[in-house]
Specification:
This protein has a domain of 33 residues. 38% of the residues lie in helices and 0% in strands. It contains two helices and no strands. The model has no long low-confidence stretch (mean pLDDT 85).
């Protein structure tokens, strides 16, 4: 019998890895913000991005020179 691996997130939408390095103080603030909302750090990041109106603006319409 061959062992098969079951998906870890069978009932959830597809996901992508997002990583970055931040200063320790920023990480602590993010952890406090997530804890205050009762969500994971991952979900907290999702919420911040979902609330950013510029995140949905096509790059051609953004002034990225600033």
């Amino acid at each position: 019998m061959v062992a098969t691996r079951t998906p870890k997130r069978p009932n959830r939408r597809p996901h992508a890895l997002l990583q970055g390095r931040v200063a320790p103080g920023i990480k602590e603030r993010a952890e406090r913000g997530a804890a205050a909302r009762g969500v994971s750090l991952t979900r907290y990041l999702e919420l911040l991005i979902e609330a950013d109106e510029l995140a949905d603006t096509p790059p051609a319409q953004l002034d990225l020179t600033a």
